[in-house]
Amino acid sequence: MSEVPEPRVSLNEVAYRRLRSEIITCRLAPGQRLTEKQLAADLGVSTAPLRDALTRLDHEGLIHTVPFKGYRVAPLTPRSIDDLFVVWRIIGPEVIRLGMTRASDDQLAAARAAFDEMGDRVPGDAGAVHDIDLVNATFGTLAEATGNDYLVTVYRRLMGDMSRIRALRLTSEVDDPSATSEGHWVRHVLAERDPDRAAEQARRHIDEVHQRVLQAVVRWPSVMSSEVSVSQPR
Question: Alpha helices, DSSP H only, in 147-233?
Fold first, then answer.
């Protein structure tokens, strides 16, 4: 039997995946300035696929366009991380509750399947990105199952920064057991199929992670050196 050839990946997609991985793992640090010329040289691609990738990343909130100057990786600061978790505590549990309520059997099976792949994670950045993609696939399926375009849009906008925070937790030297435990509780609540209980467990998990991240953030150099001025809370 002949092998089925793997689908070809476009240069646009290659550039997008490379840049996204570099940003999520903070190899391109929060606040870092970017130029098309330097990125094209680093990635070995022409301007057209690079601009397509940059546009996608801009829509996801991972980079900002700086008029006449190029681009900048979206900053991450203690204040912005705190604000992000406040919003995610509102959105995340509702994505799970409404998604589980409206999901078909096939959608729930697809959501569980992503976590079944998590197992023993490969160490390092590549393993972190793979793990993050699996988590996002599950929550993305539930977000789509809600059938609410506004909720899906907000969810997608939050996932870029949530992915960076998860990568920092998985690859930093700070001991954070909750960084690798998410798959266990999500798989459990998906099997139970109790949307309200799942939403409550999600809320507790988000609160726990929020506190751990705030305690660890001062030991994340890429965050603390992010080039952005943060206004003091009122």
Answer: 149-171, 182-192, 195-216, 221-224
Backbone angles phi, psi at 71, to 5 degrees: -140, 165
Residue 162: name the closest of 184, 181, 144, 179 by CA.
179
**Each residue's pLDDT tens digit, 150-171:** 999 999 999 999 999 988 888 7
Token pair listed for 86: 């406040």
Token look-up 């912005």 returns 80
pTM over 0.90: no
Kindly state whether residues 82 and 140 are assigned to the same domain: yes
Packing angle, helices 105-116 and 182-192, rounded to 10: 160
Name the one residue in this structure whose structure tokens are 């030991």: 219
Query: Does residue 201 fall inside a structural domain?
Result: yes
Residue 3 lies in a domain: no
| Cα 42 from Cα 7, distance rounded (Å) | 25
State pLDDT tens for residues 171-218: 775 555 555 555 567 777 788 889 999 999 999 999 999 999 988 887
Q: Decide: 194 and 101 in contact? Cβ < 8 Å.
A: no
Is 88 within the bounds of a domain? yes
